[in-house]
Amino acid sequence: MFDRYEAGERAVLVHINFTQEGEWEDLNEFEMLVSSAGVSSLQVVTGSRQSPHPKYYVGEGKAQEIAQAVQWSDADVVIFNHALSPAQERNLEKLCQCRVLDRTGLILDIFAQRARTHEGKLQVELAQLRHISTRLIRGWTHLERQKGGIGLRGPGETQLETDRRLLRERIKAILRRLEKVAKQREQGRRARSRAEIPTISLVGYTNAGKSTLFNRITAAGVYAADQLFATLDPTLRKIELADVGAAILADTVGFIRHLPHDLVAAFKATLQETQEADILLHVVDASDERFRENIQAVHEVLEEIDAHEVPALVVMNKIDNLEGQEPRIERDEEGVPRAVWVSAMEGKGIDLLFAALTERLASQMVQYQLCIPPQNQGRLRSTFFQMKCIQQEEFDQDGNLLINIRMQQVDWSRLEKREGAVLRDFIVT
């Protein structure tokens, strides 16, 4: 279907430094992404600009330099460490006479290589189709041809219209399948909720050591490697915590700066594990010089998937790469564990992590007595029954419902957000 240059495994990389903070990317991370995709870098072309050029993203002179680099190194593909518009991609392909890929396309390619489960493959295909659909007009050269042949002459669908329709139909089919997967995951979550089993979700920047930590805690044997996006399909395992009992630990896909929106949307069912978790274990590579920026990037993705209100415990991992760092628990002003310093590779500090987790989960329950007037009783009482959080209830002489509830802090926060300030008014002080 594509009338475009074939992409190979030998690439010229392009990295532009912008004075605008929002356009800034990291060259080392880009080279790791390229390596993770199994592509060999022949040459890196760098430059500086105030803002992107509308035609080539880079200036005319820099675009010629990239074309020469492709010719001299005999490269198959040019990969940009930035998001290109469809027009820029096509203009660069005409100039360089080879395939041009942007940062989003590169990440999608890595995800396509890593997907193992049926769900993972569907999610990646959905993200790729959404990405391709924006590139139909400029990316293909045969699009204005109309169908010919006997019985098909005259006004009819152009090739572009046909391709758009086929894409839409395929996207709808994938969304229907993913809806079934989401329902299955929701059933599993409901079953865990009924059994009052807390869920702990591992989140963090890609290559922070989440899967290594997951294997250390659960002995699950999940694939772990020193590469970006080694984990794509979520894995859930049961663990035992003192004073808390059974808990579910979920290993999820890593985040990255400027994670493509198509991916976030496609992985909605997977990321639901993070949204519905009782606590997040935010794994940070403490040996990375830019760990603070990585933490900020994770916070931005959590906000995008509406999981920023879930309580989090920071795990400062890879202390074996730092001199003079010993396993320890950091506490906030109120004495609550805020961060744990560990080495998942060497198993140092794992006992402290368990202790901090136990302390946090045990302290996350809230208990309230509510006095609910008759006009609000039906819906709220039904909600509390569904959440299985009612401890005691009775009616007073005025018909008000006096109810004692006990639930996770995060569930109360979500309920408060949904019901607004009215819920606070019902609390008996």
What does this structure look like?
The chain has helices at 27-36, 60-73, 86-96, 103-114, 118-133, 136-139, 159-194, 210-218, 261-266, 268-275, 291-304, 350-362, 374-387, 409-419, 422-425, and strands spanning 10-18, 40-49, 77-80, 99-101, 199-204, 235-241, 245-251, 279-285, 312-317, 328-331, 337-341, 365-372, 390-395, 401-408. It is α/β, with parallel strands linked by helices. The strands form three sheets. The protein has a seven-stranded mixed β-sheet, sandwiched between helices. Helix 1 runs parallel beside helix 4, helix 4 (103-114) runs antiparallel to helix 5 and helix 5 runs antiparallel to helix 7. The radius of gyration is 26 Å and the shape is globular. The termini are far apart. Belongs to the TRAFAC class OBG-HflX-like GTPase superfamily. HflX GTPase family.
Summarize the structure.
By secondary structure, the protein is an alpha/beta fold.
SSE order, one letter for each helix or strand: EHEHEHEHHHHEHEEHHEHEEEHEHEEHH
Strand order within the widest sheet?
6-7-5-8-9-11-10
* Portion in helices: 40-55%
Task: Let me know the average pLDDT.
Answer: 78
Task: Give the radius of gyration.
Answer: 26 Å
Uncertain segments are 138-149
Query: Terminal Cα separation, in Å?
Result: 67 Å
What class do helices, strands and sheet pairing give?
alpha/beta
Count of strand segments:
14
Number of helices: 15
Biggest sheet descriptor: 7 strands, mixed
